[in-house]
Design a protein that fits this description.
8 strands; Muramoyl-pentapeptide Carboxypeptidase, domain 2; globular; alpha+beta; 8 helices; 3-stranded antiparallel sheet
């Protein structure tokens, strides 16, 4: 899952907002930076910063290196902007996504369930877990989920009803693949949202995803979770 990298007529890359900010930080520093350094500068969770840094590496806009160290201990992985803004060579991530999605759809007995489980794991990974004492109500849960969705390129819109939230998603970063394998891709997205809400301890659950109600609009329907307090936690599979 990554923000799509496009090029304008002059072949200069156009990035999503968060990824562009990460690139700007690398450019301004001019020196190799670790994930935590970038996260603090940009104001992102470290997992989200790593996600965007790796996306820049994949696009040919940054390089991943091992830090030179004279002190004992494991060297950090650091990132540095490349000398040119023009990606080198063609990359076919859409083709790769279609091939892997076809593999899941054709070989697994319940591809939708498998995709949802994978999405939940990634949602927990990308979300920033609040402090144990921090209270996360429904509105805060929606805000945190929307932040992750925005960083992934879904362009979430504002929520009108905080009691039974519906998040309008104005852009699907995997639209072409989803049109061919809706069960797998939409289940992956639903699982992603469930994983985020679970990780941030929101009193909400992603109940269903209504895909393509308009050509560029999907609706994520959330419902309250009974018996879960806003500040409580619950045991999750493979907790961190």
């Amino acid at each position: 899952m990554s923000e799509q990298v496009l090029t304008d007529p002059e072949s200069r890359p156009v990035l999503g907002e968060s990824r562009g900010r990460v690139l700007d930080v690398l450019r301004a520093t001019g020196e190799p930076m670790g994930v935590q350094d970038v996260a603090e500068r940009v104001g992102l969770h470290s997992n989200t910063a790593r996600f965007h840094l790796d996306g820049l590496v994949d696009a040919g806009l940054a390089e991943r290196r091992t830090e030179d160290r004279t002190q004992p201990g494991r060297p950090r992985t650091v990132y540095v902007v490349t000398a040119t803004d023009v990606p080198a060579g063609q990359r076919s991530y859409r083709l790769l996504a279609e091939m892997l999605t076809s593999l899941v759809a054709d070989t697994l007995p319940e591809p939708g369930n498998a995709a949802e489980t994978a999405g939940e794991a990634w949602g927990r990974y990308l979300a920033e877990r609040p402090a144990p004492s921090q209270r996360v109500d429904a509105a805060e849960g929606v805000r945190r989920l929307s932040t992750v969705l925005a960083d992934a390129g879904f362009a979430p819109d504002t929520v009108d009803d905080p009691e039974r939230p519906v998040i309008p998603l104005r852009h699907c970063p995997f639209r072409e693949v989803a049109e061919q394998h809706r069960d797998v891709v939409c289940s992956l997205h639903l699982g992603l949202m469930r994983g985020v809400l679970d990780e941030v301890r929101a009193p909400l659950k992603a109940d269903r995803l209504e895909p393509f109600v308009e050509p560029s609009l999907c609706l994520a329907h959330l419902v309250p979770i009974s018996g879960r307090s806003a500040g409580g936690d619950r045991r999750r599979r493979g907790g961190r």
